[in-house]
Amino acid sequence: MYKAKILVKRRKSILDPQGKASEQGAKLLGLNNISKVRIDKSIQFFIETSDEVLAKTEATEFCNKLLANPIMEDFEIILEKVNES
Amino acid sequence: MYKAKILVKRRKSILDPQGKASEQGAKLLGLNNISKVRIDKSIQFFIETSDEVLAKTEATEFCNKLLANPIMEDFEIILEKVNES
Question: What global pTM score does this model have?
Fold first, then answer.
């Protein structure tokens, strides 16, 4: 079994409205030193296979087709072998 | 200046509907080995101060009051000193 950790980030050139809104919120709370807030997605899941190539293929397909928006986001995949539990 | 990396996670006991929906999506794509999908928030920002205690206080207040929902989410803060650029 593999554990996959994915980080889906908007490309730097693309505005992050959620981050921008939180930054304005910080100002309203009086936290004036906070800047450049970016909010990304961190995703975790398990892949029930012992074949690393298959695990990698499934994780990549999952990201490309569902988790990330290929027009404005990039993703990183980290696979880690774990014991069945 | 400090760079803050925050991970906001739902508590394990609380259902993650976004993760659940992605898991069902994976099944529909034929990715039958994928299970236990959890989607968390990964947040990055800068704190313009050279005082580590102040940086930590501002980051914690920002998380408590705005970034995390204290009823169902926990957060981790990692601070890293960076040079002004």
Answer: 0.88
